[in-house]
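Ticket opened by: R.M.
Priority: normal
Category: complex prediction / small molecule

The reporter submitted a protein together with s-citryldethia Coenzyme A and asked that the result be attached to this ticket for the collaborator who will pick it up next week. Submitted input follows.
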Amino acid sequence: MTETKTATLTIDGNSFELPIHTPTVGPDVIDIGKLYGQSGAFTYDPGFTSTAACDSTITFIDGEKGELLHRGYPIDQLAGQSHYLEVCFLLLYGYLPEANELEKFERLVTNHTMIHEQMHNFFRGFRRDAPPMATMVGVVGAMSAFYHDSTDINDEHQREVASIRLVAKMPTIAAMAYKYSIGQPFVYPRNDLDYASNFLNMCFSVPAEEYQVNPILARAMDRIFTLHADHEQNASTSTVRLASSSGANPFACIAAGIACLWGPAHGGANQACLEMLKEIGTVDRIPEFIARAKDKNDNYRLMGFGHRVYKNFDPRATVMKESADEVLELLGVEDNPLLQVAMELEKQALADPYFAEKKLFPNVDFYSGIILEAMGFPTSMFTPIFAMARTVGWISQWKEQLGDPQLKIGRPRQLYTGETKRDYVDIENR
Ligand code: SDX
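Result attached by the on-call engineer:
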């Protein structure tokens, strides 16, 4: 970071010079690290709408242009020309691998897709109707009880082993959570299948008959993984970074990220979006839901719309829509009523001044649910799939943070608006 400029802040007549760091691309940042020490004042930014919490080289988003770069490569090129495990390599190591490096990495991931056999018992402790997200939070956190040889965050080799284990085992855990929820036997990973095909096989094959993975569905699945891989300092990634700043082990940090992603304002939006489309049901009911979303007295929101950063289109939604068309055509459900409602909802919302003024566009969660449902997943599996795909982003950001020699525990302060000091009152005198 270069510091050629400074900002001057004046408080009660006293001026404070604050260094400005200039990024390779994007907004300048004003370094307030010494502000409290110099001025006795905190800054205040609930929701971190104007706060850079770290520096990073992994992902860049330009919300105005609708641009998303992973290590400089545009998401539409990666989604169109690369594949998920190559994107994992890019996020983890910072460059596109040569053929032999990629082959070695893919073999390493493939050879670590099984989980400790004893972990199967964890699933059986849950009720059958447990949401798969609950199972994933529990089982991923429990990985720290099994993989002790990759929990020492100060050992670079152990950090690498934990990274590969998490990327490799998340599909297995997600598929097992699904199988358990529908009362079917677990399906072991197969080393002869690619990452996406292996996941589909673990989810949809049954011992009673041969399951053939449809290559077009596998390609669409792989592309969905790529589109969800990383996204700068979103809420769940920030959760992973904050958890890791205390020195917590990688499995605990990723379990914290899964828990944060679960919320409907974040990764839970894909499930909430599909449930909204089903509730709308037919295009003639769309105006009713748009009116609710616009009503100041109703905190109802259109799921799959809006984004903290994208104030133009979400480039992932554009690619996801293309995938939705491809999958639905393949499955012969291009006249899928949900897709009809989704496209008409998008059209009407974008034509409405409310959404235009507030720059609310479809985000990554708007179309993903339509594809996943068409592929046969229940809505309860939508966010687990998001969590599985985002694990590589969480891990890449976790590794980057641990590599920062300036790393300190994250400890925000507050604007205190509570009671001032007062004495205790015995109960008989209250
Ligand atoms: C993800 O951060 C990331 O990068 C996340 C993510 C990733 O890859 O990690 O991209 C994944 O989480 C995508 C977002 C998925 N969530 C949803 O689709 C849920 C619906 N969207 C909203 O909850 C909302 O848009 C957020 C949470 C996504 C963004 O919220 P912000 O940035 O805090 O915006 P805001 O709540 O301040 O809204 C600004 C205005 C408000 O109106 P006013 O108070 O100014 O009058 O826009 C309105 C909001 O009421 N608004 C909406 C709306 N989203 C915002 N109104 C109706 N429908 C919506 N969806």
